[in-house]
Amino acid sequence: MRVLTFRHVPFEGLGLIEPALRVRHIEVDYADLYQAGAPPRDIGAYDALIFLGGPMSVNDDLPFLHREMEFIRQAIARRQPILGICLGAQLIARALGATVRRNSAKEIGWYGLDFTEAAGGDRLFDGLSMETVFHWHGETFDLPSGAELLASSGLCRNQAFRAGERVYGLQFHLEVTPRMIADWCVQDENGGDVRELESVIDPFFNAPRMAALSARVFGNWCEMLQIHSSLLRPNLPY
User: Fold this and answer.
1) Of 166, 156, 117, which Cα lies nearest the Cα of 135?
2) Active-site residue, selected from the candidate residues 107, 156, 175, 222
3) How does DSSP assign 129-153, residue by residue?
4) Would you put residue 68 in left (φ > 0), alpha (ψ -120 to 50) or beta?
5) Catalytic residue among 135, 137, 173, 228
6) Which entry of 12, 86, 137, 222 is annotated as an active-site residue?
7) Per-residue CA distances from 55 to 10, 60, 137, 187 (Å)
8) How do residues 66-88 score in pLDDT, each as one tens digit?
9) Alpha carbons 107 and 134: distance in angstroms, whole number
10) Res 101: pLDDT
């Protein structure tokens, strides 16, 4: 199995998603469309797509973001599984016709997350109720038509959704490691956000629980991919 991952800056990578993929022998290719001269990609050659975060806005008139939203619409039409993180979730929402706008407040650091009743029985989040996870965003999205709201926080209602059976958008950053958080805090692109913080972010604050939670949620996502692949190609191994 292979997934295609869309990065938007060099410092926002797969993080804790990567070990969940690796332990299940799922290979990864990267589509860095933000880089000049990035080669074209055939999304039909992959079992799933992942769209990561980035400091830009979905509302910026950037050609590579327009191209990614077209890929999202094509993948949904093909019934390919999609996972979007932060900016990636906003790209999915916008591709599905929802509005992406400035949130009432920036949510940067460790904040509580409440899973909705609809998350019970969901393939990724079944059994979860309240967690403390990492956030870094100043924008939010309206829930796409027909999508199921799976999680909310005090500062941002639409934190996770499922559109159909295989398309997931997560506004929060469940994939980050302490090293990633520390690195984000010194990146020039994030300097404005960091200067607005009232206190310094502790990258290790809830790291053990985040690692366990990410292994569970992203492990569930990988298992969903394996089931989906086996249904499409019943005579082939995962």
Assistant:
1) 156
2) 175
3) -EEEEEEEEEEEEPPPTT-EEEEE-
4) alpha
5) 173
6) 86
7) 11, 11, 8, 10
8) 999 999 999 999 999 999 999 99
9) 9
10) 97
The answer to whether residue 173 is catalytic is: yes
Which of 138, 152, 198, 145 is CA-nearest to residue 167? 145
176-187 residues labelled b (16+ CB within 10 A) or e (exposed): bbbebbeebbee
Give the pLDDT of residue 234.
47
Contact 96, 147 (CB under 8 A): yes
| Residues 219-230, mean pLDDT to the nearest whole number | 91
Is residue 70 annotated as a catalytic residue, yes or no?
Answer: no
Helix, strand, coil percent values for the chain (each to nearest 5): 35, 25, 40
The verdict on whether 86 is a catalytic residue reads: yes
Task: Locate 38 and state its tokens.
Answer: 């990035």
In the chain the domains, ranked by start, together with CATH numbers, are 2-232 (3.40.50.880)
**Close Cβ partners of 81 (under 8 Å, ≥ 6 residues apart):** 47, 48, 49, 166, 167, 221, 224, 225, 228
Predicted pLDDT at 237: 42
Q: What is the mean pLDDT of the chain?
A: 95
Q: Rounded mean pLDDT of 38-48?
A: 94
